[in-house]
């Protein structure tokens, strides 16, 4: 037999849900970290319009973490400098993040030695960047008790790092590089390359003399002409592709 609907309980449930959602939205706004409202965190520097979303991931060694301007750090992102909290790491920054960097939700940047991320890099969720790796030289000692190896990591400006990618100690990634989702990067990656796989290898690269090799399989996106309004874009979305392309070609002549 179907249960009778309890109108009072349903009303109370909806009200409680609204209260919870409103409270969580408030906590996200108040708990986010900016240069004006750093909370307990005292970064070496944090640029204007940079925001760390709440809830935060693990953050320590922040005096040796320098964040550029206009960065977006997603929820549950871990940023650490040094092997553990409360160490004196010297006068120089350990983790340096350039302007306009986006770190996706749940990503980790572990800088036990120098890690540099160039400006305008975009990370998908759950990317892992580390300057430290476990050693296993002694076959009689548990791996977790052996002293780790550390090598600096550098990611050039303008890179796109896909979901779940791993960047290992010693990696040197050039400018405007695409790292495919799930790739494991080690060693040097040249500028304007696409890398994929574990370990990652170059699957496509651009050079001034040859362009993209192998050639791109899809045409480059057509940029929106200057002066086009959002209302015009909405109107164009209802047209067939041929008509929309014809109008786009005519736009510069108007």
From TrEMBL:
Q: Kindly list the GO molecular function terms attached to this UniProt entry.
A: acyltransferase activity
Is the keyword Repeat assigned to this protein? yes
Domain of life the protein comes from? Bacteria
InterPro entries, per database record: Hexapep (IPR001451), Hexapep_transf_CS (IPR018357), Hexapeptide_acetyltransf (IPR051159), Trimer_LpxA-like_sf (IPR011004)
SUPFAM superfamilies attached to this UniProt entry: Trimeric LpxA-like enzymes (SSF51161)
Q: What Pfam families would the database entry show? A: Hexapep
Q: Which PROSITE patterns match?
A: HEXAPEP_TRANSFERASES
Could you tell me the keywords of this UniProt record? Acyltransferase, Repeat, Transferase
Q: What is its EC number?
A: 2.3.1.-
- Keyword Heme attributed: no
The UniProt family comment states: Belongs to the transferase hexapeptide repeat family.
Q: What is this protein called?
A: Acyltransferase
> What organism is listed for this UniProt entry?
Streptomyces vulcanius
